[in-house]
Design goal:
Chains: A alpha/beta (251), B mainly alpha (296), C mainly alpha (353)
CATH architecture of chain C: Orthogonal Bundle
Order of helices and strands of chain A: EEEHEEHEHHHHEHEHEEHH
Strand content of chain C: under 5%
Radius of gyration of chain C: 21 Å
Largest sheet of chain A: 6 strands, mixed
Number of domains of chain A: 2
Oligomer: heterotrimer
Largest interface: B-C, 36 and 40 residues
Strand content of chain A: 15-25%
Strand order of the largest sheet of chain A: 6-7-8-3-9-10
Distance between the termini of chain C: 14 Å
Number of domains of chain C: 1
Shape of chain A: globular
Radius of gyration of chain A: 19 Å
Largest sheet of chain C: 2 strands, antiparallel
Strand order of the largest sheet of chain C: 1-2
Structural class of chain C: mainly alpha
CATH architecture of the largest domain in chain A: 3-Layer(aba) Sandwich
Number of strands of chain C: 4
CATH superfamily of the largest domain in chain A: P-loop containing nucleotide triphosphate hydrolases
Number of helices of chain C: 14
CATH topology of the largest domain in chain A: Rossmann fold
Distance between the termini of chain A: 39 Å
Number of helices of chain A: 10
CATH topology of chain C: ABC transporter involved in vitamin B12 uptake, BtuC
Shape of chain C: globular
Chain lengths: 251, 296, 353
C-alpha cells in the first residue's frame, strides 16, 4: 500500500477551482515531485495534504489512515512534516531552539509536568537538546546553533527548517519549493541533502520550479496544470511527454 | 404590547441605532484606510457633545455644534499626526494598545476639564416634553433630528466616497495601499484625513444625541463597544452593513428593555458582540467565501 | 536545585525591603508592598499569556474579580436561613461551613475561607475554559474586543447583582487562616507575616512559570508566537496550548483576587473595571511582554507607587500615558533586553557547568 494516497482532491475558492480532482499515490521510500507552471495549484495541493486547508471534495489517506477532519497538528504528529515556500522560522528563537521545537511530537512533558519540573522531564529535555544538536551537525549547522534563526542567511534558514522537520522523525516530508531563492551551488547542495534524507528512509514529496533539480533527484513526477494532473511518470517519460513540453515551452 | 408602545420602542431603537451606526461608520473609515481599530472612537463622540455644550455659553446652538465638530476634527488630525503617522509598520497589538492609551488620556482630560457631572445640550426644537404624534405614539422631535442628521451623514459620505477625488483616493488606499502609493496617492495624508473624517462624524453624532442621552466624561467607552459591535455585525469596513446592523442592534436593545432589567442592558449588546465574534466574525451580511478571498 | 538559583536575588530583595523598612521606621510601606505582590501575581500570569503565547487579554481584571468576589461572597453571605436545604446540609456535613455570630448577634453560617478559595479559583478556571475556547480562536482586534467585552460583562454583573453588593461591593470579609496562627488579614499586627505570605506566593508563582517557559511547553508557546502556521505544522496543538495558558493566568488572577480580598477585608466593583485590565496590560508592556522579571519588577513598582497615591488623581492618566509612551518608543519594554539576557546567560552557563 502506498504511504500517501490522494484521491480526487478538489478545492474551490469562490468560483475558482484551484485544485481539480487530483489523484496520485506516493510509494514508501521515493522522491516524488509535483511540477507545473505558476498558479497550477501546487501550494494549494500541499496545504490540502497537510490539512492547513480543508478540501471541498476528495480524500487524502496517509499511512492507511483517512485524514478527513484531522487538524494540521494531528497530521504532523502522525509523521507528516512540511516546509514552507517562504520559510517560516520561529522568530526570536535560536536555530537550536527551532530544531528543539521540532522534537515536540516525539516528547511528552505537558503543562503540569513542566510547571512542577517533574524529575523525568529533565532527562527528556537533555535528550531533545542532544538530538537537535546532532541534527544540526548532520546538516552542517553545528556552529550556528546559538544564533537567532531569523537572522541567518537564506540558505542556512532553509537548512534549519529541514533539521526542524527531520526532528519530528517523519515518515513523509513535504518540501514546498526547497530551492526557491537559492543560487545554483546552493540548489545542488539542497539536491544532495534531499537524496540523503531519502536514504535515511524518509519518503519525500516536493513542489519545485527548478527543472534540473527535479529531473536529477526525483523518482517520479506529477505534472499539474490549472489544477489538473496532465501527466505522471518517471523523469525521462515526463521530459518526452508532448503535453508537458507544450505547457512549458508554449505552443 | 399596544401599538403605541410598539412604535415608541421602535423609534427609540431607531434613534439609538442610527447613533450606533454613525459610530460604527467612524470605525470603518479608519479601519479601511489603515487596518486599525481606533479604540478611541467613542471619545470623539463624547468630545463633540462636551465641546458643543461648553461653546453654547458664547454662541447660538448651530454655531456651537459646527465649531465643536471642527474642533474635534482638529483633535482627530492631531492624534493621527502625533501618535500614528510616523510609526513604520506597527503590529496590530501595538496599535490596539496605543489607541486604548489615547482613549484613556482623552477621557482623563475630559474629567479634568468638565468634571464628573452629567451635561446635555438643550433640545434643538421645543423641550423635553414637546412631542409629535406618529400613529398615536408620542415621539420627541429630537428623535427626528437624530435620524435625519444620521441619514444625511450617510448620504453625504457615500457621495463623498463615490464622487469626489479625495473620496476615490481614500477608497483606492483602502483597496490596496501599495498600489495606491504607486499611483502617486499620498497615503499618509489619506490616513490623517480618515481620522479627521471619523472624528467629525463622531462629534456630530455626539451633539445630536446629547439632549436625549446626556454626555459625561466617560460615556465614550460604552458607545465604542456598541459601535464596534455594529461594525462587526455589519462586516468590518462595510458602511452599508453598518447602517443596517446599527438599526438592528438599536431596535433589539430597545425592545429588550421590556424583558431584561435596565442594569443588564449593556450586557445584552456585549453578549451579542461575543456571539457574533464566535459564530460569524465576518459579519451578518458577508459571505464566508468573500471574506476568505479578501484574506488571501 | 541549581536551576532555582535565579530565585536568590528575589529572596534577598524581599528580605532587604523588610529590613530597610524596619530600619527606617517605615514598616507601614509593607502594607502596599503586600498588595503590590498580589497584583504582581496576576501580572506575571498575564505576562505569559501576552508575551509567550502572544494573546492579548483586556479582561483579566474580570478573573481577579471572580476570585475576589466569590471568596468574599461565600465567606460573608449568611446561609443560616437556608440551614435546612439539602446542599447546605451537605456542605455542613463535609465540614466546609463555619457558624458564628454576625455584628447584631444573630446566628451566622458561612463557608470556610479554604473552601471558598478553592471554589472561587475553580470557578475562574472553568469560566476561563468556557470563554477561552471560542475567544482564543480570534486574533488581533477581535480578540482584544472580545476579552474587553468579557471584562465589562463581569463588571456589570458585579455592579448589578445584589448578592455581590452592587456599587458598595462586599465588606467585612473575615481573615483567611492559612495555618494556625497565620492569617491573611489587614491588621498591623499581621503586617510582616502577611508581607512574607504574599511574597512567598509570588515566589511560588514565578518558579512555576519559570519552569514552564523553560520547558518543552514554553518552547512550543514561543513557537506559536513566532509563527502559528509553522507551529501547527510541527505538531503543536496551538489551540490547546493557548487555552491552557489562558486558564493558568486566570487561576493566578483569581488567587490574587482571593488573597487580596481577605487582606483588604473586602472588594468593590472598581477591581473589575476596564481600567484595571488596561493597567495590567500596561504593566506587562512596560516590563517587555515576554519578560517575567520585567513584569514582576514593574508590577511591584507601579502598583506600589499607585497604592501610595503618588499619582494622585492622575492615576488612570498615568497608566494611559505609560501605555502610549512605551508602545511608541520602546515596544520591547523599558528594561531593555540587553541586561536581562546577559543575566540569564550567566545563570544558564552556571547551570551547564
Amino acid at each position: 500500500m502506498a504511504l500517501l494516497e490522494v484521491d480526487s482532491l478538489r478545492r474551490c475558492f469562490g468560483g475558482l477551482v484551484a485544485v481539480k480532482d487530483v489523484s496520485f499515490a506516493v510509494e514508501k521510500g521515493v522522491i516524488k515531485a509535483v511540477i507545473g507552471p505558476n498558479g497550477a495549484g501546487k501550494t494549494t495541493l500541499f496545504n490540502l495534504i497537510s490539512r492547513a486547508l480543508a478540501p471541498t471534495a476528495g480524500r487524502v489517506r496517509f499511512d492507511g489512515c483517512d485524514l478527513q477532519g484531522k487538524k494540521p497538528h494531528q497530521v504532523a504528529s502522525m509523521g507528516m512534516a512540511r516546509t514552507f515556500q517562504n520559510i517560516e522560522m520561529f522568530s526570536g528563537m535560536t536555530a537550536l531552539e527551532n530544531v528543539m521545537v521540532g522534537c515536540h511530537v516525539r516528547s511528552r512533558a505537558g503543562f503540569l509536568a513542566s510547571m512542577f519540573a517533574l524529575p523525568w522531564t529533565r532527562p527528556e529535555e537533555r535528550k531533545i537538546r542532544e538530538r537537535s544538536l546532532a541534527l544540526l551537525d548532520l546538516l552542517g549547522l553545528a556552529d550556528l546553533a546559538d544564533k537567532e534563526a531569523a537572522g541567518l542567511a537564506f540558505g542556512q534558514q532553509r537548512a534549519v527548517e529541514f533539521a526542524r522537520a527531520l526532528a519530528m522523525e517523519p515518515t513523509l516530508l513535504l518540501l514546498d519549493e526547497p530551492a526557491a531563492g537559492l543560487n545554483i551551488y546552493e540548489t545542488a547542495e539542497v539536491g544532495r541533502l534531499i537524496t540523503r534524507i531519502r536514504d535515511l528512509g524518509v519518503t519525500i514529496l516536493l513542489v519545485e520550479h527548478d527543472m534540473s533539480l527535479v529531473m536529477e533527484i526525483s523518482d517520479e513526477i506529477v505534472v499539474l496544470s490549472f489544477g489538473q494532473v496532465i501527466a505522471q511518470g518517471p523523469p525521462q517519460a515526463i521530459q518526452q511527454d508532448p503535453d508537458v513540453v507544450r505547457i512549458y515551452l508554449g505552443e | 404590547m399596544t401599538i403605541e408602545l410598539f412604535i415608541q420602542y421602535l423609534f427609540a431603537g431607531i434613534t439609538y441605532g442610527s447613533i450606533y451606526a454613525i459610530v460604527a461608520i467612524g470605525f470603518n473609515i479608519i479601519y479601511n484606510t489603515t487596518g486599525i481599530i481606533n479604540f478611541a472612537q467613542g471619545e470623539f463622540v463624547m468630545l463633540g457633545g462636551m465641546i458643543s455644550i461648553s461653546l453654547l455659553d458664547f454662541m447660538p446652538l448651530a454655531c456651537a455644534i459646527i465649531l465643536a465638530v471642527a474642533i474635534t476634527m482638529v483633535i482627530g488630525a492631531f492624534i493621527e499626526i502625533v501618535f500614528i503617522r510616523w510609526l513604520a509598520a506597527p503590529s496590530v497589538l501595538r496599535m490596539i494598545i496605543i489607541t486604548i492609551g489615547i482613549s484613556i488620556l482623552i477621557r482623563e482630560a475630559a474629567l479634568y476639564i468638565w468634571g464628573e457631572g452629567v451635561r446635555s445640550l438643550p433640545y434643538f426644537t421645543g423641550s423635553a416634553i414637546t412631542a409629535v404624534g406618529i400613529f398615536g405614539a408620542r415621539i420627541s422631535p429630537q428623535v427626528l433630528w437624530v435620524v435625519g442628521a444620521c441619514g444625511l451623514t450617510v448620504l453625504a459620505l457615500s457621495f463623498f466616497f463615490k464622487a469626489t477625488p479625495v473620496g476615490r483616493e481614500m477608497r483606492a488606499c483602502a483597496a490596496n495601499r501599495k498600489a495606491a502609493i504607486l499611483c502617486g496617492i499620498n497615503t499618509g495624508n489619506m490616513v490623517t484625513f480618515s481620522f479627521v473624517l471619523s472624528a467629525g462624524i463622531g462629534a456630530l453624532a455626539g451633539c445630536m444625541m446629547s439632549p436625549i442621552t446626556y454626555t459625561q466624561y466617560d460615556s465614550g467607552t460604552a458607545l465604542a463597544i456598541k459601535g464596534f459591535t455594529v461594525a462587526i455585525l455589519g462586516g468590518l469596513g462595510n458602511v452599508g452593513g453598518a447602517v443596517a446592523a446599527g438599526l438592528l442592534l438599536g431596535v433589539v436593545e430597545a425592545f429588550s428593555v421590556s424583558v431584561v432589567p435596565l442594569a443588564f442592558q449593556d450586557v445584552i449588546s456585549i453578549a451579542i458582540l461575543l456571539i457574533i465574534l464566535f459564530i460569524r466574525p465576518n459579519g451578518l451580511f458577508a459571505s464566508k467565501e468573500a471574506a476568505g478571498l479578501r484574506a488571501f | 536545585m541549581r536551576r532555582l538559583l535565579f530565585l536568590i536575588p528575589l529572596v534577598l530583595a524581599i528580605a532587604a525591603v523588610h529590613l530597610l523598612c524596619a530600619w527606617t521606621g517605615t514598616l507601614y510601606y509593607l502594607t502596599q508592598m503586600t498588595m503590590s505582590a498580589y497584583y504582581s501575581l496576576l501580572v506575571i500570569g498575564l505576562c505569559v499569556v501576552m508575551g509567550y503565547a502572544g494573546q492579548i487579554s483586556l479582561g483579566h481584571a474580570g478573573f481577579f474579580a471572580i476570585g475576589g468576589y466569590l471568596a468574599a461572597a461565600f465567606t460573608t453571605r449568611n446561609l443560616a436561613g437556608l440551614q435546612d436545604a439539602l446542599p447546605v446540609r451537605m456542605l455542613d456535613a463535609a465540614g466546609l461551613l463555619v457558624s458564628g455570630r454576625d455584628v447584631y448577634g444573630g446566628a451566622q453560617l458561612v463557608v470556610t475561607p479554604w473552601a471558598a478559595c478553592v471554589a472561587a479559583v475553580l470557578a475562574a478556571a472553568l469560566i476561563a475554559l468556557l470563554i477561552g475556547i471560542p475567544v482564543l480562536k480570534l486574533k488581533g482586534h477581535y480578540l482584544a474586543m472580545a476579552t474587553l467585552g468579557f471584562g465589562i460583562i463581569i463588571y456589570k454583573i458585579a455592579l448589578a447583582v445584589p448578592y455581590f453588593g452592587g456599587a458598595d461591593g462586599i465588606s467585612e470579609v473575615p481573615p483567611f487562616n492559612l495555618l494556625p496562627g497565620l492569617a491573611i488579614t489587614g491588621g498591623s499586627a499581621n503586617r510582616i507575616a502577611n508581607y512574607y505570605i504574599a511574597w512567598t506566593l509570588v515566589l511560588l508563582g514565578v518558579t512555576l512559570l519559570w519552569n514552564l517557559i523553560h520547558s518543552r511547553v514554553g518552547r512550543a508557546l514561543r513557537a506559536i508566537h513566532g509563527s502559528e502556521r509553522a507551529a501547527d505544522s510541527i505538531g503543536v496543538d496551538t489551540a490547546r496550548y493557548k487555552l491552557y495558558t489562558f486558564m493558568l493566568s486566570a487561576v493566578f488572577a483569581a488567587l490574587a483576587g482571593v488573597f487580596l480580598t481577605h487582606y483588604n477585608g473586602g472588594i468593590g466593583p472598581s477591581e473589575a473595571g476596564v481600567m484595571k485590565s488596561v493597567r495590567y496590560v500596561a504593566i506587562v508592556a512596560v516590563g517587555g511582554m515576554a519578560h517575567i522579571w520585567g513584569a514582576l519588577v514593574m508590577g511591584t513598582l507601579l502598583n506600589f507607587l499607585s497604592l501610595r497615591g503618588v499619582f494622585g488623581t492622575y492615576d488612570d492618566a498615568v497608566f494611559g500615558a505609560i501605555l502610549i509612551l512605551i508602545m511608541l518608543f520602546a515596544p520591547e519594554g523599558i528594561l531593555q533586553t540587553g541586561i536581562m539576557d546577559r543575566l540569564r546567560r550567566l545563570v544558564s552557563r552556571r547551570e551547564e557547568d
